[in-house]
Amino acid sequence: MPTVRLNDVTIYYESYGKGFPLVLAYGLGGNTGMWAGQVEAFAQHYRFIVWDPRGHGRSASPPQREHYGLQISAEDLRQLLDQLAIAKAYVGGQSMGGGIAARFALTYPERVAALLIIDSASASGLPMSAAMRAMRQKTIELAETQGMEAVADYAIAANPNLKTQAEASPEARQRLRRMFLDLNPTGYANTIRAMLEEIFPTEQLSVLSMPTLVLAGEQDPALEAARITHHQMPGSQLVILPQAGHLSNWDCPEAFNASVLAFLRQLEL
After folding, report:
1. pLDDT digit string (tens) for 84-112?
2. The domain spanning residue 102 has which CATH number?
3. CB of 122 closer than 8 Å to CB of 69
4. Using CA atoms, how far apart are residues 187 and 145, in angstroms rounded to an integer?
5. Quick check: is 146 in a domain?
6. Is 47 helix (H, G, I), strand (E, B) or coil?
7. Predicted TM-score of the model (pTM)
């Protein structure tokens, strides 16, 4: 199992293909299987690396709240790249992963050849809505008192980010449920706590000058945040995928893959 030890935390990653590195992180509650629809397409052209942020997947879940945060995960990414001897990469992420990538780009701009912000409100720096904050608080309570089965039932019904997947088919709904059941409740709860406390001034995005793709599904609740991220970053490209929701790479994998590859290929002409 490919892992690296970063201080006292083990971080899991997967690497596919050869070429210039393309490194992506997924959103809150996910796992590396969320990128299954991208592996074949991206690994034909790049060294495609996906990784589990702390508190998720096969990475460690420290018990202390203070060991979590998007900036902490950005530091984990820096150390992961160091361990893999990668000086520079295409760096991005979906939802929470986009927030990690944005913070990494601000801290280590010299290591980012291009930035990909996918279906991400956390990259924008906008405050979480009251309704979303209440929903997140409820998931913390359920994770710590009733376990991940209760979280799965509640989140699939109440989280607007999961609407397109939850309604797509019984199989898609079960896929979401399995994703939640694979989570460590402590890691999940602490990750949410950290996100609820995050402060990230939106105007910081304006200093980023690397080529940037901002991508969102047209049915994504984070679409307005994506538009603001795009507006804050002069020269960024905005792509909106029709018929896709917050998990646009799941909803429309072929269109998603084509959009990402087209963006990266134009950088290489």
Report:
1. 999 999 999 999 999 999 999 999 999 99
2. 3.40.50.1820
3. no
4. 14
5. no
6. strand
7. 0.97
